[in-house]
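Ligand: PMT. Inputs:
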Amino acid sequence: MYREKRILLGVSGGIAAYKAVELLRLLVKAGADVHVVMTRNACEFVAPLTFQTLSGNPVHCELFNLIQEREIGHISLADRADLCIVAPATANVIGKVANGIADDLLTTTLMATKAPVLFVPAMNVNMWDNPLYRQNQERLVHHGYHFMTPAVGELACGWEGQGKLPEPAAIFDFAQDLVGSRDLAGRTVLVTAGPTREELDPVRYLSNHSSGKMGYAIARAARNRGARVILVSGPVALAPPEKVELVRVDTAREMHAAVLARCDEADVVVKAAAVADFRPAERAAGKMKKGDRQQTTLELVRNPDILADLGRRRGKALLVGFAAETDDLLENARKKLCDKGLDLIVANDVTEPGAGFGQETNIVRILDCNGTVETFPCLPKDEVAYRLLDLVRQRLSPGE
Ligand code: PMT
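Predicted complex:
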């Protein structure tokens, strides 16, 4: 994957800069041509000569270096990269790029490049939790930048928590998906995300805890891999991803109509949405009054099963469902896979810590119709999305 790829490795100033040396070694071993750009602070932690010796290329530290500028030019560093990895990425570098500030060679290069950029943050746990940092990260994700989630553990500053640079091998694996993998170019992927809302009256509704994070991660991953993406989303608090066709819906019936209207355009349909199986038999025109009643009964009627309808139509699209379970995970998921006529199903036990509704991570098993099961550890939802799309890609007819 990395062979003959030109990787720009940005190193910013943190104690974890020493781990970037090992990352560089792995990339070079895999056949990549690595060019290192260091911030001034990074040079305080690791000598540029170390990176220069291991990469076999000059290390760039200054925005205006007369010799390097004549021979390479800082913009051509950005132009020639197939992928930029910033590891460690400090809150400072992330904050600057998120706000359009380019005041050194690294931030200038990151803002000038058209290549995918992966930030691998490493920082103090309180900085990681700081809402200002989070806003910066969200902003960059929204604009198509990639992030790896820091590991949890003992931090150099003495605190314990999230903020450690992941191991170089994990960064190497993660970045592999980004380098030149436009393997869904020419395909259309329809993704559903979030909950549906079923109104009882003008002020109340039935719904569930879906945040939309899983479905939005799949939409972003498909877009990053070159697909045209149609995202049919229930009501969520997430920013709409860029370069994705967003269709907003509220109810299961609206989602059903939107998906059926667009599914013929799709090569792949991924149904990550948590659709309400039932809705109130009647929606009261005015706010329902409790009166003197101590208890009441709500009559519910079935909503259409969107995925089952798609399975029955059996168009050209590869169908991927999700199964949110609380018990008998595989058995229930297998049943849904068969009953709904799916090609793949992503099973998650939503009672497991780190899995399911509202979490940043998920723990999934992916089953296909031949009975094959792939088991994944607890991963950020973006990574779950990439692994799912790998399996989807393998199942799409070649050359189409
Ligand atoms: O949104 P997040 O907070 O990130 O949480 C992610 C998630 C838990 C919602 C996601 O990982 C997940 O499991 N999504 C499916 C939730 C669900 O409704 O599962 P289910 O087992 O009830 O439904 C099975 C499949 O049929 C799903 O693909 C669902 O979209 C689909 N379905 C269900 C009912 C219905 N009326 N129509 C459908 O198409």
